[in-house]
């Protein structure tokens, strides 16, 4: 348990990480198995139904050995592939959850999603909210309350038409970002190098999501980040970096050791920043109401004035949306730029699509960028190779289920090994090669849709998907039209490490060579 928790809350290289839930639900078992065994065939011809006891399983000690001695701790996504080779498509993992790692089994699990799907225990996050009387957000709330909250949050966000309304705001942010890229290039010795691109994309993503949620600009793309915004970024970092210590140290030590205090201080910083912006917006809305003026605005105004949500619930939801939206989007963009820099032919094909699509001096609208098949295929493929959320979970709470020919009682926890699935050789030949063409609808056979579902599935799937896609399409469109992106040979090979989201193991530098000739043409 601690291992999964720690992986979920690690902090590194100034990257702040989204916690995926920890699993407290155990597989209900009729008894412990003995040694790890070889995978068994999923034959349906057998005397009695197979149960969890018939599954191959990994012991906790073995998991510890792999993580600590074999060094899979930072490469838990690679451990998914290692275990798949050793134990087969379905087995009990070292934390006693049922691991599935083929598109077919993933589909079976997710088709059993209940009305209120559950990923796992979020009590560490809930504790702070309970202490301060803040409401729960989409990550922390469960059951019917979650369902009602999503009904509210989904509006103005989930449908492509909803996200299109933010096209103007996002384009403004992207314009500032390209300006910043020009500025950073100028400061570099070669005149075109941008160092630590992931950090720049983090600033872009935070600015983008905040401008939608708060309807205000934070200034992340200015030369110097404003102090209040920097405090907020530091607070996120502080909360995540102390989470692991809080989990592994006993409750009685909370007043003695510094971790709990720091962890809570991190949350205080996050909520006080969000609260200040929300309170400001409420004042503006109230003034307009008092003056009999029409209340107009984007997401926050909608939550505050058009829904039955209490202010404390708005605080909870906005904070969680903000935390969920930044690392995911920025790391996806980082991997995409990295892949394009290493694949000039792909980049050229993308440039052809981009430059043929709208006139050179034209800023594309949301409708326009979402109609570009190759651009979309590039992101689908980047997310297949680097699914920023490499692992997810479901607890089937209220019914017994049959998955892969095995019977499982209710409350069984399933771990969804997305990294292994999206590198499944049968579904994706040459799984480690970047081939956006796989995803084109040009008559070729398309891969199993469950082979890569980077935004999750069904009613509990990602609420920010359309906004993230729009932002990523818009920024890539503009960058590719302006620049040819080339690798910095001094960086060497970039590897992915797992810090809940997949991040690069070292800073990525890229050359942004201006396509001046072509732009002028
Ligand atoms: C490339 C960007 C992103 C990726 C790959 C991504 C991926 C995911 C995944 C895999 C899940 C879990 C879904 C499931 O369990 O089926 C999720 C949930 C969630 N995401 Fe995203 N996400 C991204 C961007 C965003 C953004 C921009 C926001 C905020 C605007 C956001 C907000 C959320 C929230 C609130 C949840 C929890 C939903 C719930 O439990 O009901 N995400 N995301």
TrEMBL record:
GO terms for cellular component: mitochondrial inner membrane. It comes from the Eukaryota. Its cofactor is heme. GO terms for biological process: C21-steroid hormone biosynthetic process; cellular response to peptide hormone stimulus; cholesterol metabolic process; cortisol metabolic process; glucocorticoid biosynthetic process; vitamin D metabolic process. PROSITE patterns: CYTOCHROME_P450. Keywords: Heme, Iron, Metal-binding, Monooxygenase, Oxidoreductase. The keyword Oxidoreductase applies. The keyword ATP-binding does not apply. One of its GO terms (molecular function) is monooxygenase activity. Heme binds at residue 462. PANTHER family: CYTOCHROME P450 (PTHR24279), CYTOCHROME P450 FAMILY 27 SUBFAMILY A MEMBER 1 (PTHR24279:SF123). Belongs to the cytochrome P450 family. This is Sterol 26-hydroxylase, mitochondrial-like. It comes from Channa striata. The lineage of its organism: Eukaryota, Metazoa, Chordata, Craniata, Vertebrata.
């Amino acid at each position: 348990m601690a291992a999964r928790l720690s992986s979920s809350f690690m902090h590194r290289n100034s990257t702040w990480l989204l916690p995926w839930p920890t699993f407290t639900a155990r597989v209900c078992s009729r008894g412990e198995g003995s040694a790890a065994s070889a995978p068994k065939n999923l034959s349906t011809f057998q005397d009695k139904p197979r149960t969890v006891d018939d599954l191959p399983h990994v012991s906790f000690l073995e998991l510890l050995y792999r993580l600590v001695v074999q060094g899979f701790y930072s490469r838990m996504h690679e451990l998914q592939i290692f275990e798949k080779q050793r134990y087969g498509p379905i087995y009990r993992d070292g934390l006693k959850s049922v691991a599935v790692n083929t598109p077919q089994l993933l589909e079976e699990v997710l088709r059993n999603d209940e009305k209120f799907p559950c990923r796992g225990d979020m009590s560490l996050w809930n504790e702070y909210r309970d202490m301060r009387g803040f409401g729960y957000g989409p990550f922390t709330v469960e059951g019917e309350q979650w369902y009602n909250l999503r009904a509210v949050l989904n509006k103005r966000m989930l449908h492509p038409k909803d996200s299109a309304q933010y096209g103007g705001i996002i384009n403004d942010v992207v314009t500032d970002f390209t300006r910043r890229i020009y500025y950073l290039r100028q400061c570099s010795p070669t005149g075109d190098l941008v160092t630590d691109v992931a950090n720049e994309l983090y600033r872009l993503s935070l600015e983008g999501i905040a401008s939608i949620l708060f309807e205000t600009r934070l200034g992340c793309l200015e030369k110097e980040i404003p102090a209040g915004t920097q405090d907020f970024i530091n607070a996120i970092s502080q909360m995540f970096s102390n989470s692991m210590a809080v989990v592994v140290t006993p409750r009685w030590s909370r007043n003695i050791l510094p971790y709990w205090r720091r962890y809570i201080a991190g949350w205080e910083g996050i909520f006080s920043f969000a609260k200040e912006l929300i309170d400001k917006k409420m004042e503006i809305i109230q003034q307009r109401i008092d003056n009999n003026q029409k209340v107009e605005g984007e997401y926050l105004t909608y939550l505050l004035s058009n829904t039955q949500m209490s202010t404390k619930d708005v605080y909870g939801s906005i904070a969680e949306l903000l935390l969920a939206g930044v690392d995911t989007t920025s790391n996806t963009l980082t991997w995409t730029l990295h892949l394009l820099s290493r694949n000039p032919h792909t980049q050229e094909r993308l440039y052809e699509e981009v430059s043929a699509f709208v006139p050179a001096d034209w800023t594309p609208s949301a409708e326009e960028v979402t109609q570009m098949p190759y651009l979309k295929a590039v992101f689908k493929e980047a997310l297949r190779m680097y699914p920023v959320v490499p692992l997810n979970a479901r607890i089937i709470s209220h019914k017994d289920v049959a998955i892969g020919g095995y019977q499982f009682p209710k409350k069984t926890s399933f771990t969804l090994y997305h990294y292994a699935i999206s590198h499944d050789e049968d579904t994706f030949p040459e799984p480690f090669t970047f081939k956006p063409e796989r995803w084109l609808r040009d008559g070729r056979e398309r891969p199993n849709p469950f082979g890569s579902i980077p935004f999750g599935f069904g009613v509990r799937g990602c609420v920010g998907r359309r906004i993230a896609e729009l932002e990523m399409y818009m920024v890539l469109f503009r960058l590719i039209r302006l620049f040819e992106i080339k690798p910095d040979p001094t960086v060497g090979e970039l590897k992915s490490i797992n810090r809940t989201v997949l991040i690069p193991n070292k800073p990525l530098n890229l050359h942004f060579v201006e396509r001046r000739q072509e732009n002028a043409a």
